[in-house]
Amino acid sequence: MKEFELIKYIRKTFQENNRKKNLLVPIGDDCSVLVPPKGMAQVTTIDSLVEGNHFSSKYFTPREIGRKALRVNLSDLASMGALPPYYAWLVFAIPSNYSDTSIMGILAGVKEDCKRYDVTLAGGNITGSAEFQIHLALSGWVKPRKMLTRSGARPGDHIFITGTIGASTLAYQQFKAGKRPYPWLVKRWANPEPKLGIGIFLAENKLATACIDVSDGVFQDLGHIIKASNAGAELFWEKLPIFPRLKKLNPTPQMIGFGEDYELLFTVSPRNLKKLKPLSLQITEIGRVTKHGLKVYSSNGEEINATNIGFSHLA
Ligand SMILES: [Mg+2]
To answer: What's the CA-to-centroid distance between 204 and ligand 1, angstroms?
Structure first.
């Protein structure tokens, strides 16, 4: 497809859901214009998926790639406690030999999850490129006094994580070993469920002092929280909710810190612990906030070295 044909195709594919009342000027003009709901502030994130760096079409189908582009951004919105409706801006960088079927598959995936998560495509851009890339910006809404950030953790706060960690690393290890992982495991890596409900619950009830989504690995992302909060942390290895099939393999800290878990990692002050009850089945306490340093302890109290573990975007 030529550029203008593709633009026409995208507009047609997404037209049914761009009549949201907050979207004063939808896709198709020079800019899109959003009107914030009363008392709300706009929260925006952007993420890039570059073929060969962030994903491979050897591992994922086009539809899975499209859904992944949306979901990794939704996970960032979840970590701030952002409320819907959400708005997306989509940029494709496409090599000249890239197939129309792949592009249409990716768009079908984006569309499917737009519907599922109340996302409206508000604009975008298309350009040529040596390697295939998708960049997606996503916006939602926060009440300024209730939003979650990375910077409020205080010594004595309890550290929690949602779900389990390690399914993505397991899928990756299996691909790398030349095995074909179970389709449900690949799906879990390609299309993680963004924890929007939990993020919103934490924000609305002002329960978390700090929050982040685990994209770069649990150790590195906890590092981001303590750095932004000017604090430290201790983690207890045996408390980490490791994905059961991975746990059987006696995973190394490198495997656990691989990332792409898209769970929420958050801190809660002792006086709010009781209010977490509605989440008790979906979260695990894994450590405490301290004054400084990041320490990980094994079950016999020995320190595990967890520095320099996790995804580096410029490695
Ligand atoms: Mg994030």
So the answer is: 19
For residue 141, report the distance from its CA to the centre of ligand 1, in Å. Answer: 16
Separation of 138 CA from ligand 1 center, angstroms?
A: 12
Cα 212 to middle of ligand 1, angstroms: 6
Residues 105 and 189 in one domain: no
Last-in-domain residue among 93, 113, 142: 142
* Contact criterion met (CB below 8 Å) for 79 and 211: yes
* CB contact at 8 A, 148 and 80: yes
203-257 residue pLDDT tens: 999 999 999 999 999 999 999 999 999 999 999 999 999 999 999 999 999 999 9
Q: Which residues contact 45 (CB under 8 A, 6 or more apart)?
A: 73, 76, 77, 137, 138, 139
Distance 215 CA to ligand 1 centre (A): 6
Q: Ligand 1 mean position to 260 CA, how many Å?
A: 10
Q: Write out the residue range of the structural domain in which residue 10 sits.
A: 3-142
* CATH code of the domain in which 215 resides: 3.90.650.10
